[in-house]
Structure formats: structure tokens, C-alpha cells
Design goal:
It contains 16 helices and 16 strands. It has 513 residues and is of the alpha/beta class. Bound molecules: calcium ion (CA).
Length: 513
């Protein structure tokens, strides 16, 4: 039968116009990686988001660590891109996880402290699922969903498969909650979470790209290594950080008031033994630091080994070529700097998080970016990479142009930070702004300020806030801080009314006891 359409004049005209458009357009002029992805025949990338808990960038050899060799993370950096200025917006576990999933700061996502995430709100996982991804989260979740009396509060949403540690979870023989069902596992959490993550990929449907959040518990306090790695570090003598004996001269009261000091606040439970009775003063402090580092680094070494195993699996299955692999942590950590362990403060060691991303063919191997990126950018980035649209109410920005080696002219040159919780370590609430060179911190409950000139004082030892030579810089930074606060819609929503901590509790809620 004759096809009447083929000879229809309008159809012919349409064909001619298309041909003309093809001839006048460059055959291949992608505006972004995502555009190129959509234009090409290549399927959408799988996304593996590997996040550890409390792993400082300065405990990764790719970031120049003098403490440890992490060959598998280094390999990821060698094959992808390393960000040297990746920062979190609120340096603590639960809030940071909520920022990542929502693409919004704590004051808008509702999780300023250890309170559950309202998972009925829009989430990255839901958007990717709607975009056709098979989604999963395995390991540490720490956003709720574990209290048997209120299992719906903070329960993972937008995931085809989830298998999470309740609360902080255990290092050995952990209980896990698989799609709502509790199940006890035998072994070491870092190995188990890796096994389950590999199983997720093995068992996935073949007709969809996948998005996996592969979340380690390690190296969170109290740093319990497995036997193999414990032995590796049992006689290890770590180098002492340059700021180990910081006495906080000229600083606000916040550092002194906090209870996260190496010499005062590491417990026998943290150290897993009583300190030798004959030690005191500087010798005792050094002994505690040494014990702390031995266990912390042994936990990290196990993470590195397991990530090597996971990367080998991606290679073996041929998945590596079209899979984005990200390695990051929920924040940084103090490894003895300023006499601290833990995080929370806006100082560099805790504000900075590792961020390494590999995407073969799209990212130049071994590249390094100094652009400021934030954990609020991760959700928009993954949506962009998946070819999905980025919701207007997300506060971050896709880093895909940076991955292509093209820094947009209007890329941010400053970032806003806010910490709310006095919490376990009595760290005074504060907020502040960091630029490429300066950092201004306001401890709002103390009404005290700190200013650091990072170019001259990378280690943040000299508070220049009252130095007249910096008065103009202080004024400019205060303006920038106000501008960011307003732009990000921080209206002090949680200044005086913090929600109750409820992500670790197993008790019945009030009225049901
Ligand atoms: Ca953490």
C-alpha cells in the first residue's frame, strides 16, 4: 500500500527543514556532560554514592595524609577528580545526611540536630526513582526509622531496597533493618555492608540504571577495628599534629568550653584500656592520642580494603565504565588538631569533607578541583547526571560543569555554615562564612567572633577579629554573611527551638509508656 504521508507536501517540507537544521547546526555541541549523555546512545550512568562516617580528608593519602596509606581511595582519585574544598553546611552526622538527601540546608529540611528526617518530603531518592532509577541504601542511615513504636518516623523513602543499621549501629555482629524487618548479621560491619552493597548490584533489575547509597558506619566513635587491622596498627606511632597544644589564646570561649579534648575527654571506653598509671601531663596526652589514632586508622584501613574489593567488583562486571562512583564522608574530623577529636566546629579539619568522584570518559583522570563545593550540591549533581531536572527549591548547584573542567564564571566564592547543637561535646552554636581566603565565625549564643586569615594562618591559630588591620575585611565578611543567610532563607528557624533528639531512641513516645 502506498504511504500517502511520504508524498504529502507538508511532510516533505518538514523533512527539508530538519535537513536544513542538521546542516546549519554543529553536529555535536553539547552544553554539558548531562546534555552529551542525553544526546549520545550511551545509557544513563549508574550512581554509587559511598559515604563513611567521620572520615577526615587528612586521613586519606590522596589528600596528602602523613598518617595512613589508602591505596584504593587513591586509585579512585587517580582515575577521577579530587575536590580539595568540599565542605559541609553543618558538621554532624544526622544533619549532614539530611542535607545530602534533600539538597537543602538544615533550617529548611527540618534536621538541625539528632532529630528524625521527615521522609514524606521530596528526596533525592524519590526523584531518581521517578526518573527510572532502581534505588537502594545500605548501612548507616541515622535519620530515624528504627524506633519500634514509631517506625514510620524517618523511615527510608524512595528506595526500592533498604537495609540499614538502627541508629549508630554496631561494629561487630550488627543488627540491621531490611525493609522494616530486623535481622542479625555475623561479622564486621564494614565487610557486611560491602557484601550487601555488592549483592544489591547483583540482584538489581537489568533494565534500569541504579543508584546505590553505600554507607559505612566506620570510622565513627568508639573506633572498633577488626582483628586484622587492629594488629596492623597496634604499635603504630602517629605524627603529632602542629596544633596539638593549642591553648586557644585570643579565641572565643567555645574551644575551651567544649568537651572533645584529647587530654580530658577521651574515655576508657574510647581507648579500650586504662591508661598506664605512671603517665601524666604531656606523656599521658600523647599516649591517649596514640591509642585513638591506632584504632581510628585501623577502621579506615578496613574501609579502604573494602572499597578496593567493591571497585574490583565493578571492574569485573564491566560496570565501572558507566558508573559514577563518589567517595565522601558525612563530615570531616579532628585527629588531634587543636587538642580535639570529633567534629562540629567550623574549623578546617571538621568543615572539610573528602570528595572524590570517578566517571570514566566524562572526567579527566587524576584531575583536581579547588572550587568550593558543598554537600548541598550532591543531590542536584546526581539529578543532573541522571538527566533529570533539578527542583527549584534545592539550594545546591550541580557540579557537572566542574567535572568537565569548566568552572562557571558565577560559581560560588563563599559558603555559609551553621551548627546548632551543644550536644554531647558541648560545642557552642555558631554560624559563619568561609571564602577562599578568610573565615568569619559567629558564636551566636556567646556573642563572640573569630576571624582567620587562611592564607597567612592555615592552621587557624590566630583570631584576627579584634586586629584593626582586619576591620575592613570583617565588615565585608559580615555583609557577605548577612547576604548568604538571607539568600538561603535562614531566618533563625531553630535558634531557640531545637527539635528533640530522636534518632537513637528505642523508648515508647510520651503517652505510650
Ligand atoms: Ca559523622
Amino acid at each position: 500500500m502506498k504511504n500517502i504521508h511520504s508524498s504529502h507536501p507538508r511532510c516533505w517540507l518538514f523533512g527539508f527543514t530538519s535537513l536544513l537544521l542538521f546542516l546549519v547546526s554543529p553536529p555535536f555541541a553539547p552544553t554539558s556532560i548531562a546534555q552529551a549523555q542525553r544526546n549520545s546512545a550511551q545509557p544513563r550512568p549508574n550512581i554509587v554514592y559511598i559515604m563513611t562516617d567521620d572520615h577526615a580528608a587528612h586521613a586519606i593519602s590522596a589528600y596528602g595524609s602523613k598518617l595512613i596509606k589508602t591505596p584504593h581511595l587513591d586509585r579512585l582519585a587517580k582515575e577521577g577528580m579530587k575536590f580539595e574544598n568540599a565542605f559541609v553546611t553543618n558538621s554532624i552526622c544526622t544533619p549532614s545526611r539530611a542535607v545530602m538527601l534533600t539538597g537543602k540546608y538544615s533550617h529548611l529540611n527540618g534536621v538541625p540536630v539528632f532529630n528524625h528526617l521527615d521522609t514524606t518530603q521530596p528526596l533525592l531518592s524519590k526523584y531518581l526513582q521517578q526518573a527510572g532509577y532502581y534505588t537502594g541504601v545500605i548501612g548507616k542511615w541515622h535519620l530515624g526509622g528504627q524506633n519500634p513504636y514509631t517506625p514510620e518516623l524517618g523511615k527510608p523513602a524512595g528506595f526500592n531496597y533498604w537495609n540499614i543499621l538502627p541508629g549508630q549501629g554496631a561494629y561487630f555482629d550488627p543488627m540491621m533493618i531490611e525493609m522494616g524487618q530486623r535481622k542479625k548479621f555475623t561479622g564486621y560491619a564494614t565487610d557486611i555492608i560491602t557484601d550487601l552493597s555488592i549483592d544489591f548490584i547483583k540482584n538489581r533489575p537489568q533494565d534500569k540504571p541504579f543508584f546505590l547509597m553505600y554507607h559505612h558506619k566506620a570510622p565513627h566513635r568508639n573506633w572498633q577495628p577488626d582483628e586484622k587491622h587492629r594488629r596492623q596498627y597496634e604499635n603504630y606511632e602517629p605524627p603529632i599534629p602542629a596544633t596539638f597544644d593549642d591553648e586557644y589564646k585570643g579565641k572565643s570561649d567555645a574551644s575551651r568550653q567544649s568537651t572533645m579534648h584529647i587530654d580530658q575527654d577521651l574515655t576508657d571506653n574510647d581507648l579500650k584500656m586504662k591508661p598506664p598509671a605512671n603517665l601524666s601531663g604531656a606523656a599521658l596526652k600523647k599516649w591517649k592520642f596514640t591509642r585513638y589514632m591506632q584504632d581510628y586508622l585501623a577502621c579506615v584501613q578496613s574501609v579502604d580494603d573494602n572499597i578496593g574489593r567493591f571497585l574490583d567488583y565493578l571492574d569485573k562486571t564491566g560496570l565501572a565504565a558507566n558508573t559514577i562512583v563518589v567517595y565522601t564522608s558525612d563530615q570531616g574530623f579532628f585527629l588531634g588538631e587543636h587538642n580535639f577529636f570529633d567534629k562540629r566546629f567550623m574549623y578546617e579539619e571538621s568543615l572539610r569533607t573528602p570528595f572524590i568522584i570517578r566517571w570514566p570518559k566524562q572526567i579527566k583522570a587524576g584531575s583536581v578541583s579547588k572550587s568550593i563545593i558543598l554537600n548541598v550540591d550532591f543531590a542536584p549533581t546526581f539529578l543532573d547526571a541522571a538527566g533529570a531536572s533539578i527542583p527549584a527549591d534545592m539550594q545546591g548547584r550541580s557540579i557537572l560543569p566542574l567535572l568537565a573542567g569548566k568552572r562557571p564564571k558565577d560559581w560560588r566564592t563563599s559558603m555559609y555554615y551553621r551548627y546548632y547543637h551543644p550536644g554531647h561535646h558541648n560545642v557552642a552554636a555558631h554560624y559563619g562564612v568561609r571564602t577562599d581566603r578568610y573565615k568569619l565565625i559567629y558564636f551566636n549564643k556567646l556573642d563572640q567572633w573569630e576571624l582567620y586569615d587562611l592564607q597567612k594562618d592555615r592552621l587557624e591559630m590566630h583570631n584576627e577579629y579584634s586586629n584593626p588591620a582586619y576591620s575592613k575585611i570583617v565588615a565585608n565578611l559580615k555583609n557577605e554573611l548577612s547576604r548568604l543567610k538571607k539568600e538561603l532563607k535562614d531566618e533563625d528557624q531553630f535558634q531557640d527551638n531545637l527539635p528533640a533528639d530522636d534518632v537513637d531512641g528505642m523508648a515508647p513516645p510520651p503517652g505510650r509508656r
